[in-house]
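User: Here's a chain of 370 residues. Predict its fold as tokens.
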Amino acid sequence: PTQALGQHYYVLGAPTANPFSMAGFSQASIPDHTSVTIMGVTPNTVVNVYTTHKVMASGGDSGLVIPETEKGGVITFTLGPYDVVNLESWQAENVDQMDPAAVQAAMETDGDFTGTRIESSAPVAVFSSLERGGGALGVQIPEPPGWGGETCCTDHLEQQMFPTQALGWNYVISRSPVRSTDGSYKEPDIYRVLATENGTIVNTSLSAPFNSFTLNAGEFEAFYAQEGFTLTATGGAVMIGQFLISQGLVPGGIGDPSFIVFPAADQHRDSYVFLIPDTFQDNFMVVVKPDGTDIILDGASLGEFPANCTTANIGMLDTTNYSQLTCRLAEGIHTIESSNPVGLSVYGYYNVGSYAYPGGSDVKIINPIE
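Assistant: Prediction complete.
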């Protein structure tokens, strides 16, 4: 809905899987590109994009000329209702593999738009996407039992960004439904925390070194976690995204990379309507809830020990303890009502893919921008 859009955004993204092509090794669709996509809803909306990655020039009769723009540059354009501008990452092509400096430069142009800032004269919608992302996004994770070095496969990733005004300081983060079939190993999820103000101090309930770090505006911290956790920030609101790792890193598992952005705890709701598609093998809802909260799914209370569900403690946020409820669901439309506000995420897996999305969120202005 247009009333949920904003005039100030930060972009959360990730590196592309194949950032450049090598001379003499032509392969269709490589290099992979990433994008920041902006849609207008109001006439004569002026947009300024402060990019953290080199942007390629527009091609053909696109209707709007986008110049090739270096990292740190500013791109300005005007949008009308339903106009869409797609800013695509510049990626190196035909790199000489025998030239170490050229290869290093190409690797550094990795497609990561994280930290890009967008300001507009009227509300716009902003999306972050990758043609292909995968592995563990450069984060060192615990090695799976018997792992032989497999990192396949990649997948396209995309999420709509929350406006900066809707970001918060307190988060309850659930882990994804476990895909590993090895009971001794839970595959980790990758997280990126992005700051919107200088000197932001972030504390989590995780063990060191991921328990505390300080960021400036547009900076991020990337880490892994195998369980849910709580997160608080002082000095500025933050955005947090979760990335599912490739199935080659998951013993016996299915699925592949996916990307979800979590709403702040202050944006949790006590009612949701959400959809499970009919094209995936395993589908789940994940609810983060304060202790003692009654969850009513499709009109029936789940009770203390719901069937087809597992529970796990997450930890304290302020004076409230939260837990995670993970339930396998059938395809179709579902509803949730709860006695306290809860967070909802929805996931699905099949042999070569995954999906993940927030099942809903308030988008209240809790972080006003001057």
